[in-house]
Amino acid sequence: xxxILENVYYKYDxxxxxxxxxxxxxxxxxxxxxxxxxxxxxxxxxxxTLMQHLNALYLPQKGKxxxxxFIVDKKSKDLRNLRKKVxxxxxxxxxxxxxxxxxxxxxFGPKNLGLSKEQIEKAIRGAMADLELDFDSMKDxxxxxxxxxxxxxxxxxxxLAMNPQILVLDEPTAGLDPKSKKDLLNLLISIKNKRxxxxxxxxxxxxxxxxxxxxxxxxxxxxxxFEGSTEEVFKENTKLRELDLGVPFSVEVLELLExxxxxxxxxxxxxxxxxxxxxxxxxxxxxx
Length: 288
Known about the structure:
There is one protein chain. Helices cover about 40% and strands about 20% of the residues. The protein is α/β, with parallel strands linked by helices. It has 2 domains: about 5-235, Rossmann fold; about 250-288, no CATH class. The strands form 2 sheets. The chain has a 6-stranded mixed beta sheet. A 4-stranded antiparallel beta sheet has the order 2-1-4-5, with no helix packed on it. Strand 7 (about 165-170), helix 7 and strand 8 (about 200) form a beta-alpha-beta unit.
């Protein structure tokens, strides 16, 4: 599903002495079906508020949000059908696991959609397979017995089991060790392509954003301050550093190589990541 935001405003009523406005202001976006979009900005920039407009957890006070055939404005009501299409994975989603077994946790959403028992099991099997979780050996286990990485996968699978067309991920790799993080990112890329999802990726980790996204919106103080393809945005190193965002490690490595005349691109994000890892390995080997 495509997503369009037209002049969207949402202002919080906050009483303080700073005269600072909190919320999002004059947001315009146009995201085509199947695209992977990054939303970046420091804490308090409005990223989460913006994302919660996509499934109408917040209604715009001005402007409108268009998700496929759904048009949402401040007067919109009965938005259940929209919320079926937009899956939200909040930060540390494993904290939202609550059932005694993995199967029951994953079945909660599909049951609320009114699916039959057969349809529910099929949806759960598909979601678990996409996250590389074995259905037969894990369905009756307690989610609380799993590792942090496995819990994260179960939590994401619970959203995928509802078969959304849009997936919103808010810091999906937060708190994971490097291997679990890399495995999850690779799975998310695979799932997005397999299911032809429109994917929104919110993160403070510029390396993750660089690997996963095609296009980026940069936010500050509730506004989009600039946007562009992933490669274009991460060329604006000065702007990003002024916003306390920095650039991916692999891009920093590339800059150093370019300055020394040792590189002429372009390389794809995954290739850059592999190059950076290779160089780090060589440096560490020499220092051991």
